[in-house]
Design a protein that fits this description.
The protein is an all-alpha fold. About 70% of the residues lie in helices and about 0% in strands. It is built from 9 helices and no strands. Helix 4 runs parallel beside helix 7 and helix 7 packs across helix 8. The longest helix is centred in the N-terminal third of the chain and has 24 residues. The relative contact order is 0.10. The mean pLDDT is about 90.
Length: about 200
């Protein structure tokens, strides 16, 4: 990566960090682009070079999570693990990334959902964290079948969608909770339960 490319990434991330701080202080709707550029110490044109609209900051948050999903699957440290442990470690690591800033996650997550609901500008499937997560889990389950670590008889698509549904439901419960519920510990326990089953 060239110095110029590195600088561009740093500037984009700086704009996003400043925006996040202001969103938490004032709310998404009440924060203006003028305030963001002033706080970041950049010209308005610079902001628009990276983010064509204020809403694109919300999409950038979603893209960061989609990229993180990709990065986590390429983590060689989990390659040798049993399929269940690979899926669990992957989902727990993703949960921990959300836990770093619950307030910002909550604000941007619900803003993203609101924007998607009211817009025809649906993000590309590959850039959507929900779709990306289902695909990754599906791939891990299919690898698990080849290794004889997952039942051959299961429908991997249904299993991947079920795991994804449990993950996003747990995320929603955590975002809405006012107590000290741990998203990462909760999802870890649920993955154990799903793989062990609840039948006698």
């Amino acid at each position: 990566m060239s110095l110029r490319e590195k600088k561009k990434i740093e500037t984009k991330n700086r704009i996003f960090e400043v925006s996040g701080k202001l969103f938490k202080e004032k709310g998404f709707e009440n924060t203006t682009i003028d305030e963001i550029t002033k706080e970041a110490g950049i010209a308005k044109g610079t902001f628009f070079n990276y983010f064509p609209t204020k809403e694109s900051l919300v999409f950038y948050f979603a893209e960061q999570k989609a990229d993180l999903i990709c990065d986590l699957t390429e983590n060689e440290a989990i390659d040798h693990l049993h399929t269940k442990e690979r899926i669990k470690k992957f989902l727990v690591a993703l949960a921990e990334s959300y836990e770093k800033d619950k307030d910002l996650t909550k604000l941007l997550f619900f803003e993203y959902g609101r924007y998607i609901k009211n817009s025809r500008d649906v993000p590309d499937k590959d850039r959507n964290p929900h779709s990306r997560l289902t695909k990754v889990i599906l791939d891990l389950l299919e690898e698990g079948i080849k290794k004889r670590e997952v039942k051959v008889s299961i429908d991997t698509r249904i299993a991947a969608e079920a795991l994804n549904a449990v993950y996003f439901h747990t995320l929603m419960v955590w975002l809405k909770s006012e107590n000290e519920l741990s998203f990462s510990r909760d999802i870890s326990a649920k993955i154990d339960l799903l793989f062990e089953g609840i039948g006698d």
